[in-house]
Design brief:
Length: 84
């Protein structure tokens, strides 16, 4: 059921009743196709690639191949084993 906001706001939240199919099961329909949703994945991939490139330039490190690049930072390999 819907919840009522505090009385000071003076509004009631209404919850729509789900549609029923012929066999009595709840049904949800998507009435409108949002064209922007179809392009989200390519846009996200582009944003991630741009972010990776900015980080690579900032830190002079190739995060894909995990190797240092020439630049302002000097990288050195350290052991992950605490006894080394």
């Amino acid at each position: 059921m819907g919840q009522k906001p505090p009385e000071s706001e003076g509004a009631t939240v209404m919850q729509p009743k789900p549609s029923k199919s012929q066999n009595g099961n709840n049904v949800r329909r998507r009435l409108f196709q949002n064209e922007e949703n179809e392009n989200i994945e390519p846009d996200l991939i582009d944003m991630l690639e741009e972010s990776r490139q900015r980080a690579e330039e900032k830190w002079n490190f190739d995060f894909v191949n995990e190797v240092p690049l020439e630049g302002d930072w000097e990288w050195e390999r350290v052991s992950s084993n605490p006894t080394d």
